[in-house]
Write a structure and sequence with these properties.
- It is a single chain.
- This protein is mainly α and 133 residues long.
- It has a single domain, classed as Orthogonal Bundle (Cytochrome Bc1 Complex, Chain D, domain 2).
- It has five helices and four strands.
- It has a two-stranded antiparallel sheet with strand order 1-2. A two-stranded antiparallel ribbon has the order 3-4.
- The radius of gyration is 16 Å and the shape is globular.
- Bound molecules: heme C.
- InterPro entries: Cyt_c-like_dom, Cyt_c-like_dom_sf, DUF1924_SHP.
- Keywords: Heme, Iron, Metal-binding.
- Pfam families: DUF1924.
Length: 133
């Protein structure tokens, strides 16, 4: 039992440091894209997450169209009406722990909403916004 707990703590810790590594890589990339870049910004992230754009199937949607505006609540996929678990780590601690999953969905979801992939700065901004929710 005690060992299991230790493994759990270790896994949680190493996952979150995995996300930190990803964020610091995004930061390096963002600095290359824009020499004036300083820090990721929650306010800019909010704009990215909540503003509507002509995206998938010509629909005017935002990230909130699928994830909702209150990230501690469940929501529904705009296209398939399938339930989506909350994005907030406060109620769903496994969120943003698996970097492979985070990368895959950011890529897909930016295409859904913006019809293009996100820049390093945009991805970092939106991640710090979600982390703050
Ligand atoms: C068309 C619906 C849809 C839209 C629009 C959408 N998402 Fe998602 N998102 C999903 C689905 C489905 C998943 C994968 C299932 C899950 O993790 O609940 C997901 C997963 C994610 C994840 C992975 C979370 C984790 O578990 O680590 C992140 C991060 C994310 N979305 C961010 C965004 C951002 C940022 C936007 C806007 C650019 C966005 N999403 C727009 C449907 C959407």
């Amino acid at each position: 039992m005690k060992n299991l707990l230790l493994i759990f703590i270790f896994a949680t810790f190493s996952f979150s440091s995995e996300l930190n590594t990803y964020l610091s890589n995004l930061k390096k990339e963002a600095t290359k894209e824009n020499p004036n870049f300083k820090e990721f910004n929650i306010k800019r992230g909010e704009g990215i997450f909540t503003s509507k754009h002509i995206g998938k199937k010509g629909k005017k949607i935002a990230c909130t169209s699928c994830h909702g505006i209150d990230l501690t609540k469940k929501s529904e996929n705009y296209f398939t009406a399938k339930e989506i678990e909350p994005l907030s780590k406060k109620v769903n601690p496994t969120r943003l722990t698996d970097v492979k999953k985070v990368k895959k969905w950011l890529r897909r979801n930016f295409k859904d909403v913006y019809n293009r992939v996100g820049t390093a700065q945009e991805k970092g901004d939106v991640l710090v916004y979600i982390l703050n929710k």
